[in-house]
Automatic annotation (TrEMBL):
A Pfam family recorded for this sequence: Ribosomal_S18
GO process annotations (BP): translation
Signal peptide: none
Gene3D superfamilies linked: Ribosomal protein S18
MF terms in GO: small ribosomal subunit rRNA binding; structural constituent of ribosome
Family stated for the protein in its record: Belongs to the bacterial ribosomal protein bS18 family.
Keyword Protease in annotation: no
Annotated protein name in UniProt: Small ribosomal subunit protein bS18
Subunit text: Part of the 30S ribosomal subunit. Forms a tight heterodimer with protein bS6.
């Protein structure tokens, strides 16, 4: 007989905190949404809503352009 595994529902951290915008200078937060290699994690993996995922990607790209975050890790 198979047991049902309990999976915690993913939620958008930005909606829960009622964040008005995602700051590109907040590197600590942005790094948690990236892999070690520098790729942006998808919505499926992080659980962010589509609105905040779009803001998140633009914030990460802005931080990369002014060299706060790396484009790629070796």
């Amino acid at each position: 007989m198979q047991q049902k595994r309990f999976q915690r529902r993913k939620f958008c951290r930005f909606c829960a905190d009622k964040a008005t915008f995602i700051d590109y200078k907040d590197i600590k937060t942005l790094k948690s949404y990236m892999t070690e290699r520098g790729k942006i994690l998808s919505r499926k993996m992080t659980g962010t809503c589509s609105e905040h995922q779009r803001e998140l990607t633009t914030a990460i790209k802005r931080a990369r352009n002014i060299a706060l975050l790396p484009f790629m890790e070796r």
